[in-house]
Design a protein that fits this description.
186 residues, alpha/beta, 2 domains, 5 helices, 64% helix
């Protein structure tokens, strides 16, 4: 399957896969909503971003180069700004994913602590004479046991499973931000 996917792409002489992007002019690579903004403050076109992400995801760990084919020639300064924009945008995306992963781990730690406290209270309540003689106390003790297990399970599921997609995205964005960006003018 992977071979079929990779065969859809052109390759450089060095064997790098070419992620080919065609546009009329450099301005087409940026979002329309901030046309009057200075180039340094413009966002990359969202369709362009999605195309790059999907392409790099598709080729997995293969070496690649991002190649822009433009109809209208541009000055070296504009070309440098695009290279910088691609790099900075995907570094920013890395930082966002890292922040999301950090927030998720923080929540997981809080759930772990809540689970430990609830489990401790449940054990203490179940060992007391109050639970044996009072049905309301027994129901509360059982509720604490259930809450403890749910909290602990959610915390462990996060530690064991849920962080992986964030880590994958961070590595993907890092690969893109470090990619070689070339230009061809027709």
């Amino acid at each position: 399957m992977k071979k079929d996917i990779i065969e859809r792409y052109e390759c450089t002489q060095d064997g790098e896969i070419i992620i080919d992007i065609s546009a009329e002019k450099i301005e087409d690579l940026y979002d329309d909503f901030d046309k009057k903004s200075h180039f340094l403050k413009k966002d990359l076109n969202q369709d362009l971003v999605e195309y790059i992400i999907e392409s790099v995801s598709e080729i997995e760990k293969e070496p690649f180069v991002i190649q822009f084919n433009l109809e209208i020639s541009s000055q070296e300064e504009a070309i440098s700004r695009v290279r910088n924009s691609v790099n900075k945008f995907f570094v920013y995306m890395q930082e966002l994913e890292y922040k999301k992963m950090k927030d998720m781990i923080r929540t997981s730690i809080i759930l772990l602590l809540i689970g430990i406290v609830a489990a401790t209270l449940s054990v203490l309540m179940n060992q007391s004479e109050l639970v044996k003689n009072n049905i309301a106390a027994a129901v509360i003790a059982e509720g604490l046991t259930v809450a403890a297990w749910i909290s602990l399970w959610e915390s462990l599921a996060t530690f064991l499973i849920k962080w992986m997609p964030y880590k994958k995205k961070i590595l993907l964005y890092k690969r893109i931000s470090n990619a070689k960006v070339t230009f061809i003018f027709h």
